[in-house]
Amino acid sequence: MNRFVILSGCSGGGKSTLLAELQRRGHTVIEEAGRRVVQAETRAGGHALPWVDMMAFLRRALEMARHDHAHAPRDSRQWVFFDRSLIDIAAALQALSGDPVLPQVQSCRYHPRVFLAPPWPEIYRQDTERRHDLEAALTEFERLQHAYPSSGYTVSLLPKVSVAERADFVLSALAED
């Protein structure tokens, strides 16, 4: 059984808080490639930042996400949760470039159920690494709602409840699969 589970969805929808809770419960969490690219590029004074060169940013993030998938623990009895995935990045790159990028990542498979955080304007916040506004986050969410099913995944929307209840929801749904 594939134990690589994607948590994705709307930016600012509570994914990081949920992932921290799942990690606290003993599961492995693979941090979002995009955030790590922004952090590295900022430290290095680089240009592969979404607000400077989106194409370079997405290419770096895609490379990092491929590496994450290839090197994630495969022998664990616990779930391995990915904060976003290759699908997110490939869908964004495809939308930007018009090139068929999604088919290029199909060989890197995850658990068939993907959990998407829906838009949650009440908790959305911009920060130094998330500079886009809620409207851009909503556009991203709509793209993901199409990209995952078209890539063969079943989407489950995360309920807007406490972080503990969200974690219980995810683990319960996975136990049923």
Description:
The model has no long low-confidence stretch (mean pLDDT 90). This protein has helices at residues 15-24, 33-44, 54-71, 86-97, 134-150, 163-176; strands at residues 4-9, 28-30, 80-83, 113-117, 154-157. Helix 1 (15-24) packs across helix 6 (163-176). The protein is globular, with a radius of gyration of 15 Å. The longest helix has 18 residues, at 54-71. The chain is α/β, with parallel strands linked by helices.
Which key phrases capture this entry?
Rossmann fold, globular, 6 helices, 5-stranded parallel beta sheet, alpha/beta, AAA family ATPase, 177 residues, NadR/Ttd14_AAA_dom, P-loop_NTPase
Kindly identify the CATH topology.
Rossmann fold
Listing every helix as H and every strand as E from the N terminus to the C terminus, the arrangement reads EHEHHEHEHEH
CATH architecture label? 3-Layer(aba) Sandwich
Major β-sheet strand ordering: 2-3-1-4-5
The portion of residues assigned to helices is: 40-55%
Which residue ranges are poorly predicted, with pLDDT under 50 across at least 5 consecutive positions?
Answer: none
Largest sheet: 5 strands, parallel
The portion of residues forming beta strands comes to 5-15%
The number of domains is 1
- CA-based gyration radius: 15 Å
InterPro entries: NadR/Ttd14_AAA_dom, P-loop_NTPase
Domain NadR/Ttd14 AAA: 5-166
Protein name: AAA family ATPase
Pfam families: AAA_28 (PF13521)
